Amino acid sequence: MMQLITNPSPQEWETILKRPTQELKDIEATVEQIFAEVIQQGDEAVSKYTRLFDGVEVDHLLVSNEEVQEAEQLITSDLKEAIQLAKHNIETFHAAQKTSRVVVETQPGVKCWQEKRPIQKVGLYIPGGSAPLFSTVLMLALPAKIAGCKEIVLCTPPDKEGKIHPAILYTAQLCGITKICKAGGIQAIGAMTFGTASIPKVFKIFGPGNQYVTVAKQLATQYNVSIDMPAGPSELLVMADESAKPAFVASDLLSQAEHGADSQVILVSTSANLVGEVQTEIIRQLNELPRKEIATKAIKNSKIILLENKEDALNLINEYAPEHFIVCTNDNDFFIENIENAGSVFIGNYTPESAGDYASGTNHTLPTNGYAKQYSGVNLDAFTKSITFQEISPEGVHYIGKAVELMAEAEGLDAHKNAMSLRIESLK
Ligand SMILES: NC(=O)c1ccc[n+]([C@@H]2O[C@H](COP(=O)([O-])OP(=O)(O)OC[C@H]3O[C@@H](n4cnc5c(N)ncnc54)[C@H](O)[C@@H]3O)[C@@H](O)[C@H]2O)c1
Ligand SMILES: N[C@H](CO)Cc1c[nH]c[nH+]1
Ligand SMILES: [Zn+2]
């Protein structure tokens, strides 16, 4: 059962709220070893670690057209319709994030603006170790396509027969992804970082994964690749008072607990009654879950925190910086207005977190492990770069020329000053 802690002092929060995952330093040596082999042996190293970690020998790292076509036959039309509805909503939400060019005249004759350009080569990691997360294909491939990324590579681990789940293949082809690689974990991140004969090197790697994938992504940034964010084992914090329905709260907590033994869920409440009812519901619902064993382990890492007032609750939530934050209280506005650190927020009794995992339209690739303090979840901008532009007329030189000369001189950079002085002189 989840450990119940009543009125902890702020000094105790850090220890109480520690995530159950290993740290970067615990996994670093393994990642460096696998990266070194991928650099030297390419596909062979990817196959070696697929054998070791996924327990399967893969002949071809790339999924064939036949495999994709076969997958389409294996998906029911109901599931295809559900995926298409989710696709529509995710596309609509992300397409609305496009921005138009805003030209600003900072001084007469000095025009500045910025424009977005797609990142040309991107790699998408789709988790597949414990569950085939085909919903993640939608979350990554759709914004990549809307942004206009030209080369999109998808990596996901094969199953014990060396196959990729048909729903992943169906969703990938629905989103127009053609390069699908049978590789997971550290070896997949290494392949997209350094490139192998089968798997191209990319400029930026996206996607969630377990702690090995997450640390590999973080270390990949030392080799000229950027990443979306550390998006590791799923987590959820629910803030609920007596206005929340206990069965709903318990179902939300279990929905993220079933992701993995290293997931963590937290219930924060100001109501002892609600806490008691949620505990009863968790036991009842847990018993009926096929992934009971996994969820039970995650529940052991999890906490219920009973606090006296909403102000303390808010401070604790901002300190924890949850990946997902459900708020279901008599004063949701207080939390909505004051939340500083969270990946994605779900409001009220009828907004389960799983709606955002699949179909409401928001992105489910979100920062975990407290990284919501400094990272956003995946959005359209993550697949683009902003380039700034400027155009200065002779009138503009008149307005800013002297300032540039003076500042360059003060920094002792005469060549900088000359570049402006020549223009000023030419206009006399
Ligand atoms: N933060 C987010 O946005 C978000 C979204 C979806 C899922 N998730 C999380 O993604 C994770 C998916 O994890 P998963 O394990 O199911 O799939 P995964 O694809 O992330 O990882 C599977 C791979 O891990 C590697 N691996 C397994 N054991 C290893 C070991 N001992 N040493 C080195 N490598 C090893 C294997 O190569 C395997 O292919 C879950 O923790 C889930 O909570 C997070
Ligand atoms: N909750 C996960 C993000 O942490 C996303 C997901 C995919 N499928 C189900 N859930
Ligand atoms: Zn989920």
Automatic annotation (TrEMBL):
Transmembrane segments: none annotated. Pathway: Amino-acid biosynthesis; L-histidine biosynthesis; L-histidine from 5-phospho-alpha-D-ribose 1-diphosphate: step 9/9. InterPro entries: Ald_DH/histidinol_DH, Histidinol_DH_CS, Histidinol_DH_monofunct, Hstdl_DH. GO terms for molecular function: histidinol dehydrogenase activity; NAD binding; zinc ion binding. Zn(2+) binds at Q256, H259, D357, H416. NAD(+) binds at Y125, Q187, N210. The keyword Oxidoreductase applies. It catalyses: L-histidinol + 2 NAD(+) + H2O = L-histidine + 2 NADH + 3 H(+). Binds 1 zinc ion per subunit. Its EC number is 1.1.1.23. CDD domains: Histidinol_dh. One of its GO terms (cellular component) is cytosol. Substrate binds at S234, Q256, H259, H324, D357, E411, H416. Keywords: Amino-acid biosynthesis, Histidine biosynthesis, Metal-binding, NAD, Oxidoreductase, Zinc. Gene3D superfamilies: 1.20.5.1300, Nitrogenase molybdenum iron protein domain. PROSITE patterns: HISOL_DEHYDROGENASE. GO terms for biological process: L-histidine biosynthetic process. Its cofactor is Zn(2+). NCBIfam families: hisD. Catalyzes the sequential NAD-dependent oxidations of L-histidinol to L-histidinaldehyde and then to L-histidine. Belongs to the histidinol dehydrogenase family. This is Histidinol dehydrogenase. It comes from Psychroflexus salis. The lineage of its organism: Bacteria, Pseudomonadati, Bacteroidota, Flavobacteriia, Flavobacteriales.
